[in-house]
Automatic annotation (TrEMBL):
Binding site for substrate: 379-381, 504-508, 513
Keyword Magnesium recorded: yes
Domain Alpha-D-phosphohexomutase C-terminal: 459-532
Protein name, UniProt field: Phosphoacetylglucosamine mutase
Active site: 69 (phosphoserine intermediate)
Entry keyword set: Carbohydrate metabolism, Cell wall biogenesis/degradation, Isomerase, Magnesium, Metal-binding, Phosphoprotein
Domain Phosphoacetylglucosamine mutase AMG1: 207-291, 306-443
Cofactor(s) required, per the database record: Mg(2+)
Coiled coil: none
Length: 551
């Protein structure tokens, strides 16, 4: 190796960011995520790690995002973004966890040394990173710790300021493809907004005026980027931004945002006097990478259009366009879902398209979607996007349409590749995509909702002492451990019409999640609670404290 670790600089700065002794950190599905005020040492070390990742990949730019998404305001977190804008390679999650848990500066330096050797990192390579944060109050201090990490190892670091998670992913890809034939776009937030809004305007040109859209920004960073996007869109689509109180303590994700809507299956109370019957509304989460739509019917009844409904709407539209462009049989559109996808949506989609079920977490969905020519992936919680393979992109640019109608459809498809953030799920990009489809189909929320009927469902969490004893198989649809529990669940499920239920350990909280659905609302609830009861008893929960609804 041409050069060595700058051990002195690392030591000196590391001493300013000691690891709290009583905490174990874990790089999970969403990176490191916990209370913001205990993350200082993690940030410093992630700064060093990001630089090493860049060196390992020959100086490609690595992204670092400081956010805790839809979690409460006191939480924060950090995740790394690989050069093509995708999640950090899974093998490095373990290295991140190891480095974060080294007890002292000495232990950290030793762990780094060992890691550099085993991972064969050439330290003479440049290290380049780009980083951003959301609006959380703990953000600035954590950024300072991260910057110390960059400084310690001598990384070339670019601060992208306060922006959404999907913008950071976009930036990483844009920077790494600059000047190549895969150039993804201008590498700035402004470049991102230009790219999306230009494609959107082309896609809705000639369509009837689109009525304004109500957006719940979760009092997070989506409010900032949403406002800039609104300025770019002008009259093409008026964005009515609500829950934009980014400076009000405690407001972030509180009784608003995509996660609130999806979990409580109701309208944020703050929109009660805002959203009119028939009007379209949507909620972003705290870092604007999840999106849930909804509307009120004539009777003022709330209807939710979640990630499954988004997948159905978007996939059907793309299939139609490929047919109209004369590319039927040449480009295969496929769907990726998780076990949380509503049974109604799985049935609807499976009758029309190839479909795959994978484990929870964006990295699993994203990778599975890459196997299709056009892969549509959405989690029910509203995180998802559409991926066009490079073969498909080439096919679209070289295809010779034989009629004007084919040419129009082909152009729409090409513009969609520009509109969609293909690096990761992006609430703002997905929102524009949905607006395009609704405009093309002349759909209101009601018509979109009628594509299929959701089965009533219920999500329950059970607090357990040790969630890792729960092990799953078959894309998390079955438990393999603790032994015997799955058989008991099966026995219960059979007694419910249209019953389905599964149990999995959360990747982000110390709980086990129970999902159940059935043909009738009361049955879905009862099944969920009874399965939760089985889990509770299995882990030796105190019978005296057993929640009453766990029957
Ligand atoms: C994280 C995942 C999300 C998943 C959720 C499940 C990413 C970027 N995010 O937020 O995809 O749905 O975790 O949480 O992968 P759970 O494991 O606690 O149920
Ligand atoms: Mg999020």
């Amino acid at each position: 190796m041409a050069s060595a670790l700058p051990v002195d600089a690392i030591r000196t700065l590391s001493e300013q960011h000691p690891k709290p002794s009583n905490v174990h950190f874990q790089y999970g599905t969403a990176g490191f995520r916990t209370l913001g005020n205990i993350l200082d040492s993690v940030m410093f070390r992630v700064g060093v790690l990001a630089a090493l990742r860049s060196k390992r990949l020959d100086g490609k730019t690595i992204g670092v995002m400081i956010t805790a998404s839809h979690n409460p305001e006191q939480d924060n977190g950090v995740k790394l973004v690989d050069p093509r804008g995708e999640m950090l390679e899974a093998a490095w999650e373990v290295h991140a966890t190891n480095l974060a848990n080294a007890a002292t500066t000495d232990a950290f330096v030793d762990a780094l040394d060992a890691f550099v050797k085993t991972a064969k990192i050439d330290l003479s390579k440049p290290a380049r990173v780009v980083y951003a944060r959301d609006t959380r109050p703990s953000g600035p201090a954590l950024i300072a710790a991260l910057e110390h990490g960059f400084k310690a190892i001598g990384a070339e670091a670019r601060n992208a300021g306060v922006t959404t998670t999907p913008v950071l992913h976009y930036l990483v890809k844009a920077i790494n493809t600059k000047g190549t034939k895969e150039e993804y776009g201008v590498d700035s937030e402004e470049g991102y907004l230009q790219k999306l809004s230009t494609a959107f305007k082309k896609l809705v040109a000639g369509k009837p005026a689109i009525p304004p859209l109500v957006i719940d920004c979760a009092n997070g960073v989506g409010a900032i980027v949403g406002e800039k996007l609104g300025a770019h869109l002008g009259d093409t689509l008026k964005l009515l931004l609500h829950n934009t109180a980014i400076d009000t303590a405690g407001a972030l994700n509180h009784a608003c945002g995509a996660d609130f809507v999806k979990t409580s299956q109701r309208l944020p109370p703050s929109l009660a006097s805002v959203l009119q019957p028939g009007q379209r509304g949507c909620s972003l989460d705290g870092d604007a990478d999840r999106l849930i739509y909804y509307y009120l019917d004539d009777r003022g009844q709330f209807h939710m259009l979640d990630g499954d409904k988004i997948a159905a709407l978007v996939a059907a539209f793309i299939v139609e366009l490929t047919k109209s462009a004369g590319l039927e049989g040449e480009i295969q559109v496929g769907i990726v879902q998780t076990a949380y996808a509503n049974g109604g949506s799985t049935k609807y989609l499976a009758e029309r398209l190839p479909i795959k079920c994978v484990s929870t977490g964006v990295k699993h969905l994203h990778h599975a979607a890459e196997h299709y020519d056009i892969g549509v992936y959405f989690e029910a919680n509203g995180h998802g996007t559409v991926l066009f393979s490079s073969d498909t992109t080439n096919k679209l640019s070289s295809h010779q349409p034989s009629t004007p109608a084919q040419s129009t459809a082909l152009n729409h498809l090409i513009n969609l590749t520009q509109l969609i953030n293909q690096t990761v799920g992006d609430a703002l990009s997905d929102m524009l995509l949905i607006e395009v489809v609704l405009a093309h189909k002349s759909y209101s929320g009601l018509e979109w909702d009628s594509l299929y009927v959701d089965l009533p469902n219920r999500l329950v969490k059970v607090v357990v002492p040790e969630r890792n004893i729960f092990k799953t198989a078959d894309a998390e649809r079955r438990l393999t451990s603790p032994p015997g529990l799955q058989a008991k669940i099966d026995e219960l499920v059979h007694r419910y019409e249209g019953g389905r239920s599964f149990v999995r350990p959360s990747g982000t909280e110390d709980v086990v999640r129970v999902y159940a659905e059935a043909t009738v609302r009361s049955q879905a609830d009862e099944l969920a609670f009874r399965v939760a009861g089985l889990v509770y008893d299995e882990v030796g929960g105190d019978p005296a404290k057993r929640p009453a609804e766990f029957l």
